[in-house]
Amino acid sequence: MGGQKFQYDESGGTFFYFLISFLALLLVPGTYYYWPRSTVEDPEKERKLCQCAGCKRKRKIMESSEPWKGAKNFMKKLLIVLGWVFLIFLTYKVSQFDYEMANFDPYDILKVSSGASQAEIKKAYRKLSLILHPDKETGNEKAFMKLNKAYQALTDDEARKNWEKYGNPDGPGVINFGIALPSWIVEKENSVWVLGLYALVFMIALPTVVGMWWYRSIRYSGDQVLLDTQQLYYYFFHKTPVMPLKRALMILAASLEYDKKHNSEIVERPSDNVELPQLIRNIENLNEKTRERPLSDAYSLKARALLFAHMGRMLLPENSLEIDRQYIVKKCPYLIQEMVNCVSQLIMLAYARRINMLPKIETIENVMKLSPMIVQGLWDNKSPLRQLPHIQEENLKWFSSKKRHIKNLQQLAQLPAEDRRALLKSIPDENYSDIMKVLGNMPYIDFQVRCEVIDDEEPTVYTAGAIVTVTVILERKSMAVLFGDESAPDKTAYETKEDEEETEKKEDAAQVKKPPAWLKQKKGKKSSKKGSKKLAASAVKPTTAAAAAPAPAAATPNTTSSNKKSLDKVEEEKKAELSADPEDSELSDDEAEQSEDSDDEPANKKKTSNVDDDDKEWEKFQDKLAKREKVLEGRSKTSHSVHCPLYPDDKQEYWWVYISDRKSHTLLTAPYHVTALVDTEEIQLKFTAPRWPGVYTFTVCLRSDSYLGFDQLHDIKLDVKEAPEEITDHPQWDFPEGEEEKEGEGSDLSEFTTDEDVEDDAE
């Protein structure tokens, strides 16, 4: 009968297996993630970078921010190499152990033949024991133990039979289980030390580490902003619904991340008592005498003064206030994003609870303005041309000539190359090259908007209370596409709202004056009914003010009624022409055949329409799956690097997209933070249509968090119709009186119930 044997590892063989598995689990992923990767330096990389003094200083700051980077990489490599050497050594030990156990042959060890007698076996054992005994000079303890084991296996008749038959002296059914721990762990003499080690690891070290992690994590939000700072934002934004820009800057400077009591990384220097008052005296409108806490605290006043000096591009002492400025500015984009989230949450909460006192759209837009101001180190009332290298305040007069009045970067990029160089003729060629590098890498966004009601029979018809989906398509190009393009339109994509209204009025006037296309046809020209229908359908499509929008907004009632009247007149004129001129109304042979086969067309059209509908549904389903996979993958934080010499770290281009009602100064959707706009990005924003019918104008806003003067506005017009009344006279909904009463019990619908919900309840 077989048996089982449990025993601790005396020789340490099975313990090696445990160590090998444990080390492999650590070394394989650790080597992949932590091995320092040597980046291949591009020889042209230095040539592509901006060589202005600010960018050179920034690169030195980024290199000096990690002084121990080389030593850390060396230690990582050393630890990983030592781990792999130890793993290879353990693997060799295990392979030797397995080799010895697999090659245990008692006949070979005693050096006798397989049919040797007992006398020959004993004689061979005595001869080898005199040589291998540990007390002898030529002794070998390990070989002597194997010799004893081989002698016992061949002198015992039962063990010899088991060996010859099963290859194992212990028989066929014996299974040995080795515990991968040495036996000294359970020995009585070592019990105190073992228990002490367990207590140290599981009762002291592990709870301490978990407690420190938990205490730190509960103090921060998901974006690693202090929860106390978040509460501070909620308080001030609720207190001041319409917040000016400078007050938003004061609240940003009052963030508790800049207070040493809440952040141990803050450094307080004795030199601040001398240098900080001098800096405050040189800054105007700092409002340092405010008594409102914590805006009047010392840490808040210092952070506010450094932010004012940063945006005023003032020189600071390098070893004191300049270091503090870099630390404060580096944290600002994360804090501003948290401020935007707090304002949008307050607005949405006020909508849900019908609170009148809610932050206005000006508040959240002023908060958004802070980000490009701090990244570029420039006030919002300054010229956006100052974002270019080598352009100082005294150089702005070059752009205000009588012939050309350049106000923004897009107008400068659209100039022909000769005119641009002539405009900047006083700048050396090297500096001009830096200007063109930076200008060419700046973003040029194609901003397209499409409105629809998804999962509806008529997606372009907006009824009261319907969920409107606004699809925003952003296509990012470099500003270099505008260089020297004389055929490019004078109106850029970054036009003001007044310009959009003017162009919209001009296009509407031109559309009214322009006669329909089919009225230009001569009487003698033959045309089929299909062609006239296509032309009529194409003429009815409304147009929008922005040429970039792929799907136009809904037309107003006046325009739709006028289009219908014009169509009726055209159809009447067409019928009159056909009845008056029989020669012109004659159809060609092909058209006659088509008219004969007109009876078969409805069936074919139904089939093709069903196939097209299935294809569209399948495409929508595939798009939904792709969007879900993209959400599961997580949002990337890499887009394009921003030229910002005064920002002490690498900054990526991010954007905010949201919908607002400029008339009521309200926010309709929470701002969507676009963090991965490399080439194209598609965003869907949803809001509820107004309850009352009418024509409404909303604005889709695109704002940059890195550049000044790159914001865009796109108006959308919604012709909101009345919601269809509930259908009650349908024959399939005629229930008996008892069932009708049962259906009516407790079926009160809310004011936000959609028509689909009503139909589902009725069915």
Describe this structure in words.
The chain has 763 residues and is of the alpha+beta class. The protein folds into 6 domains: 3-39 and 47-185, DnaJ domain (Helix Hairpins); 190-217; 222-382, Orthogonal Bundle (Sec63 N-terminal domain-like fold); 384-441, DNA polymerase, domain 1 (Orthogonal Bundle); 447-515 and 529-586 and 618-724, Sandwich (Immunoglobulin-like), CATH 2.60.40; 731-762, no CATH class. The chain contains 26 helices and 11 strands. The protein has helices spanning 13-34, 45-48, 53-64, 69-102, 106-110, 118-132, 141-155, 157-166, 191-217, 227-239, 245-253, 272-281, 298-311, 321-352, 361-376, 409-414, 417-423, 429-441, 497-513, 529-540, 557-580, 582-585, 589-596, 601-633, 737-744, 755-762, and strands at 3-9, 174-182, 443-452, 462-463, 467-478, 655-661, 666-667, 672-674, 680-688, 694-704, 712-721. The strands form 3 sheets. Strands 4, 6, 7, 8, 10 and 11 form a 6-stranded mixed sheet that branches. Strand 10 and strand 11 (712-721) form a beta hairpin. Helix 13 (298-311) crosses helix 14 (321-352). The longest helix has 34 residues, at 69-102. Residues 565-578 have a biased composition (Basic and acidic residues). Keywords: Chaperone, Endoplasmic reticulum, Membrane, Protein transport, Transmembrane, Transmembrane helix, Transport. Residues 105-167 form the J domain. The chain crosses the membrane at residues 15-35, 78-95, 192-215.
